[in-house]
């Protein structure tokens, strides 16, 4: 567990701040930072009502005090030091909570900032919370190249600068139609070949959500948010942006749940976590060797600007028969594998084994939850043959095999980044030398990096209830960094009986039209996992 366990506050004003060596995960991440692709995790929480600025600032400050391990900054040091260290502070160095000016593009701009502007490690805490009042449409307000700018000229007639145009909602979701980019083989974005359509729609037929409106946002935050006018939305979106070198999403969600409890005065205790038991090792099955380089996500239509792109959507939770040995997580794992296999076939890549990285988090979710980077990473393998056979009759067997693999991987004790990472971070040489070695090994090992990462947060364990005026969260999205060579991450969470999916990609690999197509493939294959046994 990399979460910080030492006391957070020095006793007496004259004592220097407590210093804690970087845990293994933090140090490896610090070695490999890249300015072009900030290492951020983003969480957005959608509330039906409005929040009072002063009360929220007070509640969040008190929540930081109840979880003091989040109050940390990178300590300065000389090049020949043997370790990076966190300096634990008694109070925040900066105002964490801000209220950007409301507007039709406020949601889009907040997402853009979450992808492009990491909170600095040198200021405590390395997070920020933006409160977007009266935001634009949830889907279709995707991040752009820069805050306050539109792409492709000024939107007109309700069409966003990313080249989407709205259509009538279907099945309770705002949908649309993508146009403007052309992928491989001269086919329009979103047009696919092969596979049975889901719910009367062709596999991968791109449906873009309602577009964001005109106007640029990005001025100084307003100290007093005016009330909404007639017909304007009342909702609020909380944007928590986290520097992933220091913290992960579940830890910061715990802090946000504490803030909700302080603000609203209502119980936000976590739901009981499922009990994970030690599994009997399954019978040996033929899986791809870890020494064999896995498949990569085939390049789509990259964008000229560096960094990450992101798309979010809301889907129905997949149905599974009562008493099934597999979980929703297993259905999502199979969905991700089939989506990438389909994408790669479309782009002419020969079939190769897939390996999907899966974070496993064993921490308690109550107020004692250790704060930091607390997940360990395991890899779930898939063979080309089992992904090629995904007809309805084959799906139960694939789901059962996947469940057997994920249960075994979750139950086995393992260092967070494997045994090799502990050797890389042993303080036997100056940290600057170890950083150079780590970056070199990362580049050399790139062909063996897993195909993608699927982070399924599962059902949000907290009510995130901010009281009568603001209400309870009805949607929560997470996204994880998507650096090359993976170039694509899939993050899911469920709230109020709905699945909230975020696709995040490296712009060096994919473009927005590619993300929309991958979303539709994911929706189709998620539906295909709903089998009757």
UniProtKB/TrEMBL annotation:
Species assigned in the record: Streptomyces chartreusis
Entry superkingdom: Bacteria
Compositional bias (Basic and acidic residues): 159-176
Region (Disordered): 136-231, 266-313, 350-372
InterPro entries membership: CAT-like_dom_sf
Protein's name in the database: Condensation protein
């Amino acid at each position: 567990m990399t979460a910080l366990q030492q006391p957070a506050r020095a006793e007496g004003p004259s004592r220097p701040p407590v210093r804690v060596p970087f845990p293994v995960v933090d140090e490896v991440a610090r070695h490999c930072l890249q300015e072009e692709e900030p290492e951020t995790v983003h969480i957005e929480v959608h509330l039906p009502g409005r929040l009072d600025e002063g009360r929220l600032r007070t509640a969040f400050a008190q929540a930081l005090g109840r979880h003091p391990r989040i109050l940390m900054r990178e300590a300065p040091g000389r090049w020949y030091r043997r370790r990076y260290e966190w300096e634990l502070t008694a109070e925040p160095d900066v105002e964490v909570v801000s209220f950007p000016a409301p507007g039709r593009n406020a949601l889009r701009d907040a997402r853009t900032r979450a992808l492009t502007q990491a909170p600095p490690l040198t200021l405590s805490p390395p997070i920020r919370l933006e409160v977007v009042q009266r935001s634009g449409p949830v889907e279709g307000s995707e991040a752009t190249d820069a805050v306050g700018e539109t792409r492709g000229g000024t939107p007109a007639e309700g069409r966003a600068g990313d080249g989407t145009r709205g259509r009538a909602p279907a099945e309770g979701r705002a949908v649309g139609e993508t146009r403007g980019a052309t992928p491989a083989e001269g086919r329009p974005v979103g047009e696919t070949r092969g596979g049975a359509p889901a719910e009367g729609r062709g596999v991968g037929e791109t449906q873009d959500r309602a577009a964001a409106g005109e106007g640029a946002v990005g001025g100084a935050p307003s100290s007093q948010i005016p009330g909404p006018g007639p017909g304007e939305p009342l909702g609020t979106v909380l944007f928590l942006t986290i520097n992933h070198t220091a913290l992960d999403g579940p830890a910061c969600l715990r802090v946000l749940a504490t803030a909700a409890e302080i603000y609203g005065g209502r119980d936000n205790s976590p739901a009981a976590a499922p009990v994970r038991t030690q599994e009997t090792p399954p019978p040996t099955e033929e899986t791809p060797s870890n020494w064999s380089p896995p498949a990569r996500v085939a390049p789509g239509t990259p964008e000229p600007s560096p960094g990450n792109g992101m798309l979010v959507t809301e889907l129905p939770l997949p149905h599974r028969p009562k008493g099934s040995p597999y979980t929703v997580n297993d259905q999502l794992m199979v969905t991700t594998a089939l989506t990438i296999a389909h994408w790669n076939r479309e782009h002419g890549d020969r079939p190769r084994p897939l390996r999907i990285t899966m974070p496993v988090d064993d921490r308690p979710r109550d107020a004692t939850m250790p704060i930091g980077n607390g997940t360990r990473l395991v890899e779930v393998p898939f063979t080309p043959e089992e992904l090629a056979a995904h007809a309805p009759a084959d799906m139960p067997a694939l789901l059962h095999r996947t469940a057997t693999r994920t249960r075994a991987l979750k139950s086995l004790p393992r260092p967070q980044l494997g045994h090799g990472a502990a050797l890389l971070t042993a303080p036997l040489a100056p940290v600057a030398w170890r950083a150079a070695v780590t970056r070199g090994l990362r580049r050399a090992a790139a062909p063996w990096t897993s195909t993608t990462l699927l982070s399924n947060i599962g059902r949000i364990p907290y009510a995130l209830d901010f009281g009568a005026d603001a209400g309870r969260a009805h949607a929560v999205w997470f996204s994880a960094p998507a650096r090359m060579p993976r170039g694509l991450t899939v993050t899911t969470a469920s709230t109020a009986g709905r699945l909230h999916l975020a696709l995040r990609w490296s712009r060096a690999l994919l473009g927005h039209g590619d993300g929309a197509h991958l979303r539709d493939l994911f929706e189709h294959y998620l539906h295909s996992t709903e089998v009757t046994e």
